[in-house]
Predict the structure.
Amino acid sequence: MDLRDIIRNQSSVVVGHKAVGNSLNFNKETERFSKNHLEKLLVLFNDTSAEFTNGDIGRYLQAYSWYVLCLKRALKHISLSRRVQAGLRYHPRNVKYSSYHKELSHKYREFNQYIELDYQNLIIHSCILLDRVITLTRRFIVGGNLPSFTSFNKHKQFLKKSPNPLDMNHHAYVKYISTETDWFEIPLKVLRDKFLMHSSEKYMSFLGWGQSNWDLEMVTVISAEKNQDELFRKVRAINFTPRRLARDIETFLKWYSNYAITTLN
């Protein structure tokens, strides 16, 4: 089923990410999510050729580096927008800006023009990262009825549809990928495939503060039914937030590394 139809069949008007409510410390959060949780696993592979060739390990490291760069820019947007919201939105018109406010205003004008581009880049490179991770799986899952090792989506769909995928020793792997990664389809895959990369139906997109004053959300609004007479008479909204995405990917990478290391040992 088309992911947009799945969204339209939901009872909730808003689907996708839930906002992160706690305050944002830019330095701490970028440091936290820059950590490569597959580092110990890559050492365990003991592939000396990875230092010189751009194989599966090199391509993963490149994808993770680009994902982190995209995430840092998105978090910078959130941090800067939050400070502008707090310091400039209600600034009295008849009071001159302080040097801090002048610098803040200048940074915002310069940086804000890239916000939508940076959010979209993060979505795209997150999907690339997941594809690169799943390529590493062929190093510890072999034989039997095997899925794709180049596409996270095809890998997951195979595990969900096949009655007895992989060896039964990998039941925990099949269960996790099949049931604990719904955040991949909605909002990541549907946004990348149906609105960013390919031709799409009419939709609206905007950024704003939703249920959290610390999480700047990108909201994509589509009609709640196909071919509505009035385009936005009834709607569904797809929420995307970099802070929630970072937590989803962090959880996945930690689990993946632990599973792979246990299997190899």
Notes: The mean pLDDT is 92. The beta strands are 14-16, 204-209, 216-223, 235-240. The two ends are 39 Å apart (CA to CA).
